[in-house]
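Issue 218. Parser rejects a valid record. Input:
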Amino acid sequence: MSCNPIAPQRAVDNPWWVDQAGRPGLKMIESHNSGSNTSGNQAPAPDLMVVGELNVDLILENVNELPALGKERIAGRMKLTLGSSSAILASNASRLGLKVGFVGALGADSFGGYVRDALMDAGVDTSQLLTREHESTGLTVIYTHGGERGMLTYPGAMERLAFEELPLPYVTAASHLHLSSYYLQPTLRPDVPRLFRVAREAGMSTSLDTNWDPDESWDDDLYEVFPFVDVFLPNDEEARHIAREGNLQRAIEKLAAHVGTVVVTCGSDGAIARTGDQQWVGPSLPVDPVDAVGAGDSFNAGFLSAFLRGRPLADCLAAGTTAGAFSTTCAGGTDAFAHMERYQRFELEMLPRASAVEYTEFSRAERDV
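Output the parser choked on:
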């Protein structure tokens, strides 16, 4: 079975997700420039604009031994699915009710067509995707062994996406800009501070998820982007490396001094959000995971879907935790969200625990310890 079953749940009062039509979402989100781009046959401006990498994921589960040169290994299961941090977030955020636009680069090949179709099926606007006639679409091979996983990525067309190619009027028509996989986009990377500055000047809010640095150099150029970042979304290991601080709490405090809000996912230990001296800690949720691929990106989709509806940070953290946990109930990063009736049952079931967010406000003396 590709998805774990979720038992039907008796309807209860849910104060922050199900709208009158039974869809996820509290209210319509008004764009910062609402009223523009909505006349005639033009589509409404997106709530969320994602600029980032695109690839397919080839998931090889239960590999009998770790890969080694000159040796063949056997996988227990295989799945080809929509990959990339950016695409998983965009797809799942759209399923959660946001209007999502995407700017990225694909190859003129079957994988590129697969990615485009998958995003369209999720309701993402793909009208501004770029197709490279002489390049291949990116591919990530993900293998799991003994509860751990490894990844091998061929970047392909996404590696050469440049700032000059971005349709800025389309990008800045949205309410919010998100960028993922900072380190996998070497051509765009020097201009990411410029992109985020343009977004801020256009009245957009912003978020950033760097993902892992394949070179493991964790260069300080990221700090040039931070002044324009409202929400920074690393996982715990990435936060430690970027802050160059082994202690997670101190790493979070250091990063919080540079961005509006730091939100750190910590796997089975839940998630932490920090704004200035205020900190929220959300619990993990009890699930029997099928596959953790894309769980962090799904967390980001849930968090941003609440953030862009103006919800309190504790609610955003709970929404992220719920979406991240739900993602693990199916193989791949997006398959679970193709069944939104399952999501609503899951959300109602997990609401009491997901909402048990602990709040702390630190004094100056505590910060200096």
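Fixed in the parser; the record now loads. DSSP finds ten helices and 16 strands in the chain.
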